[in-house]
Design a protein that fits this description.
Belongs to the 3-hydroxyacyl-CoA dehydrogenase family. InterPro entries: 3-Hydroxyacyl-CoA_DH-like, 3-OH-isobutyrate_DH-rel_CS, 3-OHacyl-CoA_DH, 3-OHacyl-CoA_DH_CS, 3-OHacyl-CoA_DH_NAD-bd, 3HC_DH_C, 6-PGluconate_DH-like_C_sf, 6PGD_dom2. This is 3-hydroxyacyl-CoA dehydrogenase. By secondary structure, the protein is of the alpha/beta class. The chain has 3 domains: 175 residues, NAD(P)-binding Rossmann-like Domain (Rossmann fold), CATH 3.40.50; 70 residues, N-(1-d-carboxylethyl)-l-norvaline Dehydrogenase, domain 2 (Orthogonal Bundle); 41 residues. Helix content is 48%, strand content 13%. Strands 3-2-1-4-5-6-7-8 form an 8-stranded mixed beta sheet, with helices on both faces. Helix 9 crosses helix 10. The model has no long low-confidence stretch (mean pLDDT 97). Bound molecules: 1,4-dihydronicotinamide adenine dinucleotide and the ligand Cc1ncc(C=O)c(C(=O)O)c1O.
Amino acid sequence: MIQRIAIIGLGTMGPGMAARLARGGLQVVAYDVAPAAIERAGSMLGVAEGVLDALGIAVPPAGAGTVRFTDDIADAVSGADLVIENVPENISIKADVYRTIDSLIASDTIVASDTSGIPITKLQAHISHPERMVGMHWSNPPHIIPMIEVIAGEKTAPHIVTTIRDLIRSIGLLPVVVKKDVPGFVENRVLYALLREAVDLVERGVIEPEDLDTCVSWGIGYKIAVIGPMALLDMAGLDIYKSVSSFLNADLSNRDDVAPMVLEKTNASKLGIKSGEGMFSYTPEQTKALQGERARKLVAVRRILEGRE
Ligand SMILES: NC(=O)C1=CN([C@@H]2O[C@H](COP(=O)(O)OP(=O)(O)OC[C@H]3O[C@@H](n4cnc5c(N)ncnc54)[C@H](O)[C@@H]3O)[C@@H](O)[C@H]2O)C=CC1
Ligand SMILES: Cc1ncc(C=O)c(C(=O)O)c1O
């Protein structure tokens, strides 16, 4: 039974995951190599807990869990039943973490990666006892989005997938088991198909970035939260999909590299909210207000989708 969880990496994803797991009654120890990340994560915890209260996520009868921060990786993983690796999307950084923890954990400690899409089979090559490694892909913001993908690599033992799926379910979240270890799994294959086309349309001057967001959020996003893509095909009619896709698919972006607009911005350190500028610009005050407003709206929508309003 999983009771003690170590989270390695406290950037965008780590603090929200820690808060959500603790709310589910689990004992979390959270570590980052950067002291500033640990400090920031500590201050984000209270914010995430407030959002969990607003979502109405109840503490289990046995009581809430805890989050403890540490700057010592051995302290973080020692005695853990599950380690969730949550460091940057780079195989060599992830492999370094696996090498470091290998001698610090028991051979049956489950090691999960929150990778956005590196095949688990590739990551398993860097850890001993690869049968205990599994993909556990959360969605951002992790304390609000309830769906988590679970992915087996070629060497993952089937019972590890079941254990992680059951853990996710036991704390009131929604596991989706992905049946093949394809790059990007399912969520990001679908998201990146959309993002590739969106970036291409803005880059070609077909639409302004703000208008692209209005079009997708109100034309597609709002609808798709209620009617998933497979159900949408039935609602529109497969005959319509057949006719439109027969001429449109060939015209959609099929670029297989990173779009120049994205390279230009990342080369200039314009990374989005985290650097103050990306597709749009953000002052620190605007960022704070935006994050609060987005959390409030996501909470309200989720409560309605769950039939709780
Ligand atoms: N940002 C997103 O929307 C999502 C990201 N992911 C995935 O989750 C993982 C983490 O992503 P983010 O939180 O966005 O990254 P991030 O770059 O915001 O944070 C990564 C953290 O890892 C720390 N770190 C780097 N090397 C480390 C090491 N050796 N030991 C311990 N900590 C170390 C960094 O100091 C940093 O705080 C990536 O694999 C990413 O693809 C998954 C779902 C959503
Ligand atoms: C752009 C982007 N890339 C990856 C992920 C998750 O792996 C997300 C997300 O969860 O929102 C994302 O927005």
